[in-house]
Model the fold of this input.
Amino acid sequence: MFYIDGISLNKIKEELKSNLYGKKINKITKNTETSLSIYFGKTELVFSCNPSFPICYITNSKEGVLESSAGLAANMKKHLLNAMLVDVVQLGFDRVLQFKFSRINELGEVKNYNIYFEIMGKYSNFVFTDGENKIIDLLKRFSLEENRLRAMFPGITYEQPIIEKKISPLEVDSSSFNSFLEEGTLLKNIEGVGKLFLQNIDSFEKFKTILEEKISPKIYLNNKRIVLGTVLDIAPKSKYDEVIEFDSFREAVNYYISSENLSSSFDSLKSQLMDNNILKRIKKDEKILTVLAKEKEEKSDYEKYKEQGDILASCIYNVKKGMTFVETYDFYNDTMIKIPLEPQNTPQENLEKIYKKYNKLKRGLEANARRVTEISEDLDYLNSIKLFIENSNDINNLRIIHEELISQGYMKVQNKKGKPKKQNKEIGYGVIEGENYRILFGRNNIENDNLTFKVADKNDIWLHAKNIPGSHVIIKCDELSEELLMKGAEIAAYYSKGFTGDKISIDYTQKRYINKPKGAKPGFVTYVNEKNILVIKPEKV
Done:
């Protein structure tokens, strides 16, 4: 987690103010449903109300993905473009920042505006008001039914969230502090302090030191995984084996967001790829297959019409125009049969009609089978894309998937003004190395193709989960042991659609036996001379 209490926010506020004071707004974008960006020249300030990590920060990379022309972004553009940031203040030591802006309008009048950014978990919000604190617009609207503490919608006057009356940390004296410390009521009585902060405090002197010292950003890690991010001189209570110190909150939070995949760009692109494209297409394909299965069942008895035609042909000399049926011997099933007839048709016309129906149903069934194959292959491909999106922990990997979906016609190229973005030319892959071996695996279909047909040598071992989407896995080694083969199989299982703990069947063969059919989608291959190994999908590799 990245720890932010009222005292932390006080220090973050000072850094934001020093970086942005006196600068003018030149661009505003909405990035996701829960985040937006304000640009001061080339400096981008991100406001994220993501419940898992609500935060405002200056980003090191471009966050904007979904530029909005309506709603909140449009209202802000109308009033805030060319407005200057004149102050950043904190409401007491509450987790609320007020950004104050001033702008000269077309009439030469000075207009003032405010942005209130509230860090309150799932109730985190971005509120835009005029100089009199009347709400112009906001990111999240709440009625009293949704939020018992206060209503939040345009037109009403902004009010600070209701908080308990506490002593400001700037005003508490040593006597009161020590009394609260002894009683275990520091959290209840002092504004702006959080549980982790207090767990690091054992004296009034330590409290004042942290309160008064400059910002101290650091990231604590254990086994290369982040356990805590903070701007205070405090440590996590959990185990850690590494500490990375930073010169600024900006550096620390960008490192944290990048490592934890919390950027609005990553979140937005992942949502865009999954929700707006893949899931809808998968649902559509599944629906089509259901319809085709029903259609197949309805047409499956087409052979009976050929039999009826053959039987009718054998006794057509007994059939007269005007008859509604003929009863005759069924030599296919050694029984008597009634064959319905159209009385207005001649015997030959009735016979032709039966054969015509047989041929129509037969052609329809053949078309049905081709369509089932086509849709099933498309569904397999989409499920592989879904898997790779879900497993993606890197925005560059998502961009490769995005480019793949465009190339395969699943997404349209967005025509934007300006220079076209440079396409990502480098195709990588995942690597797990050990003594005398390397195991390589694809993280998307493009990497799968590249890995199998450009990186792998003909004698390398190739592995893939049987009949389910997953990564192509390549084992490069001088000598293949059973232990190494099992490790490769576990990696193939881990990066497959199977569930953790399930037994998954893994096919393996030499790369020389892998073939890509002409016109096949990325990642699709055929293979021969395979063997099979059954492994339990591990929780991690």
The radius of gyration is 34 Å. Residues 18 and 88 are 9 Å apart (CA to CA).
